[in-house]
Amino acid sequence: xxxxxxxxxxxxxxxxxxxxxxxxxxAFEFEIDGExxxxxxxxxxxxxxxxxxxxxKRNPIQILYLAERICGICSYCHPAAFxxxxxxxxxxxxxxxxxxxxxxxxxxxxxxxxILWAGVAAHEIGFDSVLFLTWQIREKxxxxxxxxxxxxxxxxxxxxxxxxxxxxxEHHPKIFETLNYLKDNFEKLRxxxxxxxxxxxxxxxxxxxxxxxxxxxxxxxxxxxxxxxxKDVRVxxxxxxxxxxxxxxxxxxxLTGEVNGDVYDRIIVRLLEVKQSIDLIEQCIDKMxxxxxxxxxxxxxxxxxxxxxxxxxxxxxEAPRGEVIHYxxxxxxxxxxxxxxxxxxxxxxxxxWVPMLKGEQIADIxxxxxxxxxxxxxxxxxxxxxxxxxxxxxxxxxHRRSVEKTRRFMA
Amino acid sequence: xxxxxxxxVFTQMFKKPFTNKFPxxxxxxxxxxxxxxxxxxxxxxIPPIETPDGFRGKIVYDKDKCIGCKLCIKVCPSGAIEFxxxxxxxxxxxxxxxxxxxxTDICPVNCLSMSNEFLLADADKxxxxxxxx
Lengths: 411, 133
What we know:
The complex is a heterodimer of chains A (411) and B (133). Chain A has 411 residues and is α+β, with helices and mostly antiparallel strands.
């Protein structure tokens, strides 16, 4: 690789492109002047798992489980968006009770994802006791998920035309127990994340994404809302039973009265969304009507209907990281879909990394990149090229630098 | 607030650890010896945490009830089910199974169900424990 010679000596750090856990593998190239990041270049599309191609060899019921495996954390919203798209094509009416149940599971997933993210963010700045606190809380939510769906991660709860398992009166005590536990611990989390000096020092004024940039770069989800863009599919284009529920876009000015668009604001948005999700689950359980949970309980009949259906359909929903869009095309008389396209939220949230990272320090890369909630295992493969000399900067080294920066602030 | 986590950390020191020490408190120096000891009653296994109702574990197949309609093969997302044409019965390879329970849903005669068993680790994917027929 050639090193770019400018008047000041800058050097380039390539990061990536192999990321074992991120849906979209990304290669970064940072141009560094000392510790400052001068320029960032992001390139996409290095690892392709052919999930979409594999779908053209499967029927829609089988694709639900394939979609579940696109991402481990979003293992509910991908099959849900796919189901929305297919129901859109075949004009399948979902029973009202199922719509509420679907929202409950979506919000449970959001709580899991946001709390997990909070732990990862704490870990990135070297605050590991908070990591264990958050994951302890998340464990309770996972237990509830397992209790309601039969599995902790790959829930397998959604099906075309409804959900596979009902929530009955017997489930209520455990749900309320977990929700109360969450509410009790939410205050603890809020104090640690929003009032603690360590967090404020590392997150305030760091990784700023302005509202204009967020709009221009089509940021979605908490990343966009953290910059003050009121954008939430649950509000804008309500799916499931979201229209019946009391949902508002959460932007950081709800709490602080101002929008800075920094990492701290994104922490606020995610924390408040956890609270919002708890509230939504309670609303759903409260308002849920009695009735069927699936439009057609016989799976063989569903498959027959889908074989007859043809056309294009789109499924949009608000995943924990932002808007996810599934496009499906079915051909009449064909069992397998003609095509299936997934646009996951991280794809949109990658470009905002560029304005966020410009002007920051190397030690801020982990927390800024993590603030959009991608997977940070990418930083495991970093090589610095300094005037032709090459050496490795791995995740541990980046993490060590980040921890050191926190220590420097504390001293 | 400077040390908001300190109280939490100190209370945690006097709490019982969250982790269930399954199958033994400390890693046995030899797993096979440990299992032999358990078999002869010399050592005890700390039981795993109980699975909730409706857990999707190892599949249970009632062969006599099966009518060989192949519907389960049609919906299996991972291709874990093989049809045996001479007997008109099916065979499940658990090494491929993703435990979605879609086959138990579609079965017209209810000859399939999911059990609570989840300890299915094996070095050989075709071992007897991982094939249900």
